Amino acid sequence: MAHKKEELKEGCYGDEVREHILEFAENGGYEAIPEDEHEKWFTRFKFWGLFHQRSGQESYFMMRLTNASGILEPDQLRTIGEVAREYAKGPVENPEFGNGWIDLTTRQSVQLHWLQLEDVPEIWEKLESAGVHSRSAGGDTMRNISGCPLHGKAEEFVEAGPLLERFEEELRKDDALSNMPRKFNISASGCTVGCAQDSINDIGFEPATKEIDGEEVRGFNVRIGGGLGGRQPRAATPLDIFVRPENAYEVGRGFVELYHDYGNRQNRSKNRARFFAEDWGMEKIRETLQEEYIDFEMRRAGEDFREEYTYNAGRPVEDGQHDHVGVGDQTDGRNYVGLSVPVGRLPAEDAIELADYADEYGSGEIRLTRRQNPVIVDVADEELEALLAEPLLEEYPAEPSPFERGAMACTGTEFCSIALTETKGRMARMLRWFNANVDLPDDVGTIKMHYSGCTADCGQAMTADIGLQGMRARKDGEMVEAFDIGVGGGVGEEPSFIDWVQQRVPADEAPGAIRNLLQAYAAHRSEGQTFRQWVEATGTEQLVEFCEPEETDFEAPYMADAKQSWYPFAESESAAAAAADESAAPSDD
Q1: Which candidate, 255, 285, 155, places its Cα nearest to that of 207?
Q2: 577, pLDDT greater than 50
């Protein structure tokens, strides 16, 4: 029997949903949707990037945008900022971030909150006039395609731009493939840094070389079935296929169609592509692709560059690029400047000012990274000093602290109905506290600390040096917000996921636990040893002792229930109940 979600999608999904959204918007907005049809329409709305916010925020929506591999062309960020300034206003200011801002996502795109349905037609008109859209940004479909944010600008072994563009224009826009069994993530990168993180995508294309008829050919190896969430992370498995650049699209499309046709539509907790790949196995998938979906003869995998991967790979800074923060060289002799937005939240006025900088000092184009940061590109040498001296770069520096540089955070209870804890405001406070209370050796350039509000792991805690996942715990007889703390995650040549060293640590004791752990790292590391290397060399029992929870002077607001912190929510048992009975919160839909 098909899952209930399939029934809700039946009869209307994909492109045709847009007309219904416009109709509801023009006839009263939220109030025009029959109350007994909320679940059906909210499920369908997600295809167009429109998510109803959590209980207690009735009539407000989040809109997720889509821009393949993080490219924002001139004026697009400015337009997004102007839309946020005018429409993304909540009933009460967030105490940490104010009102009217954008969130940068881990899939190189943007989210807008506090939108009202009756404003959506005008919002779409403004965004789409600048070339920005929200189609296929959510729901059971192909999500925003990730790639090296500097493709076409920085050095690439194989050019990935044409493949990314074709995936965007031909595959994601094919309405016949809009209704997938679950969300589906695609990545492709031509650089040898590993920044597209193919290991945690449903299908990933990595640069490779293969000798064919005596000639060394450049192309891509293919991996499938990677992903996080539900405490069941899996690194993508090599499909043992090498493709020339001109054939890569057909293989990508073939696997999308295969999953679309054969993927599990009954059990949503077991129907992501990673479970499909595990159930079928690589040999059966290759054979089915060749027999039913691919017109050319596929070749076995070539030699990849994974041993060179440095992006979030836990390797020393001198080994190579581990994010896109800072000043770097472009192949045309100009520079890119990556800025640190610690938890990915950017006030509308700052986004507009950043767009002004991109116009004044670069080409106007901005790239977004998988670490929730913006990159200004095409900056000439003679403009570099003036850009770096701009006041806004004191707030979002190109040379941040190790904690700010490595921080990521998901949406949390502020808007997400499955989250167990508040995330972004708390992480922002913790970063300031760590800057003031933890001293790291001078050669430690970053500590990658990722915070997810629940086990769905949208904040990618499983791939962090220090991963935090929101939980609930009892303290002094009361249920309070808490963290599970894990260490030693990262991608790279051999992806590893965190090992849990403390669980259900009350939120006011977690910063002390992390400080104790970092102080032990600083005291016991070998010279030049990164945090991930130190964790691998240190026994689990010792790490548990080092990560001792401790109350400190850190102020931990919203201890009892962050979703009641600064604006009213409806009472909801869903998230707290999931934590109390040890069951996992469901993955993001």
Answers
A1: 155
A2: no
